[in-house]
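User: Predict the structure for this protein chain, please.
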Amino acid sequence: MFASLRINKWAVFTVLTALAILSSGLVRELKAAGDDGGAVSVPIVMYHSVRNDPDAAGEYVVTVEELEEDIRYILENGYKPVFCSELEDFVDSDGELPEKPIVITFDDGSYNNFYYVLPLLQKYHVKAVFSVVGQWCMAAAEGAEPSPVYSYMDIDNLKTMYSSGYCEIANHSWDMHELGERRGAGRMAGESEEDYRRAVYNDVTQAQKLLSQSGMTPVTYAYPYGICGDMGEQLMKEAGFDVTLSCEERVNKVAKGDYECLRFMGRFNRPSGADRKKFFSRLFED
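Assistant: Here is the predicted structure, written as structure tokens:
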């Protein structure tokens, strides 16, 4: 009887061990196939200015031709551009994402985004997110005839883009896009917590008010220069932003119910002249 019991225990142990090995192998296979506990890989590419002049191209300026070829490359590789609000809906369990989501972003609100980028989005039926600086929008409205070389978009430009259905507008601060005593939305040396909280809150809500009154209430805040500050994320939560964008180059993992995955999301800056296949290989890694 006792010998039989020992044999049965050994048999059970053997079966459980085999199941554990098979299970671990299955987990490895699932992870290799891109399954990460239900998380979805979401790369974000970051553009700034777009010019029709190769001599003006650089780290933060791409040519119209480069941008169009990038869009074609993204689509040919099976990726589908989505809005940040769609990531929010997915995490909130109300929405779904395509098989290969990607977010295309443009920072600063250059007028050439309206002049060159919008027609390309309409041509290829592609979505993009545009992070704008409130003060620059106001200055553009008071300026002379806009130029794709140096101007910024005004509110009417933004309304046209938003109404196209291909553009989502994000908050990029009211007037914190600078590297002076205060670096971006960071905290100044010697600044009290109370003063810092007030400065950031007043800045971001002023920009939010401008955009919201025009029917474009952003759910996303893009940190100027990617500088968050030691209290930045808490302040953005209090201001009502569900998505925040950094300048850290990494692919994001987005999962239902995981609201923290939408905070300080990674983005890859797209410089002019970079080998397209090599650049996007970093974004397309699972």
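The CA atoms of residues 101 and 194 lie 39 Å apart.
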